[in-house]
Design goal:
The structure is a single chain. The chain is mainly alpha-helical and about 100 residues long. It has one domain. It has five helices and no strands. The longest helix has 21 residues. The N terminus is likely disordered.
């Protein structure tokens, strides 16, 4: 029996065409040489926090809720919200300095 149209697929993102959270994370981690376990949980190194912010911003842009993102990254919803806000602040500063 076929899966309903709204069910996420396992290999190529979701049925809506957006990438899965795992795919977004792997793309963000590709250049760093780190694996998924490095970004889950509350690690606070600047590099990991920056990658996590990038993932949160990208995932939120693709329509994932902060709860979904926080659960995937194994952080609190408030931590995901703060990271999203900080990501927006960093982008504003970069735009002003450009």
């Amino acid at each position: 029996m076929d899966a309903p149209a709204h069910a996420p697929t396992q290999r190529n993102g979701t049925s809506s065409g957006r990438p899965t959270l795992e795919e977004l994370s792997k793309r963000a981690l590709a250049a760093s040489g780190l694996g998924l376990p490095a970004i889950t949980g509350g690690a606070r190194s600047k590099d990991i926090a920056a990658i996590r912010r990038h993932i949160i911003r990208a995932a939120h842009g693709f329509g994932y809720s902060l709860t979904q993102i926080a659960n995937f990254l194994d952080v609190s919803k408030s931590a995901a919200c703060r990271a999203l806000a900080k990501s927006a602040e960093v982008n504003k500063v970069n735009e002003v300095n450009a």
